[in-house]
Specification:
The protein has about 130 residues and is of the alpha+beta class. The protein has one domain: Alpha-Beta Plaits. The chain is built from four helices and five strands; from the N terminus they run αβαββαββα.
């Protein structure tokens, strides 16, 4: 009767002291697993301009409607995104925008520290999304 209790407690204590449960956050950073969906980022072409061609597929498939794309026309290069905005207060980080993009212009990074002091700090425009 006491032997099974001691066996159970020894197993529990072995797992209890095997590894730390928490991390010391400011000093230690959490390593994201592959496929983690964090902050959005727009990719650039070789010439430095945005890769987005303003097809608006990302805004169309977004279930929360947090993406707004304004189309611009250039006679030399064709269509481009005149403005590209993402409202992170509405975003649910589903990744549908990344899957819908036919040219891979938008990706989701492993950046997860997105806290801010105002709602305006969660409004990402094209310049903020292009910065790496």
């Amino acid at each position: 009767m006491i032997v099974p209790l001691i066996k159970g407690l020894s197993l529990t204590l072995k797992h209890f002291f095997s590894k730390p449960i928490t991390i010391q956050y400011p000093e230690e950073r959490w390593e994201c697993y592959p496929g983690f969906r964090g902050l959005h980022q727009l990719k650039r072409k070789e010439d430095g301009s945005a890769k987005c061609v303003a097809c608006q597929l990302c805004a169309t498939v977004c279930p929360s409607g947090c993406i707004r794309v304004e189309i611009g026309e250039d006679p030399d290069t064709g269509r481009y995104a005149k403005s590209y905005e993402i409202d992170l207060t509405r975003c649910i980080f589903c990744g549908f925008c990344v899957e819908a993009c036919p040219i891979g212009a938008i990706v989701m990074t492993s950046e997860y520290e997105l806290a801010g002091y105002s709602r305006e700090s969660a409004q990402y425009d094209k310049e903020m999304l292009l910065s790496e």
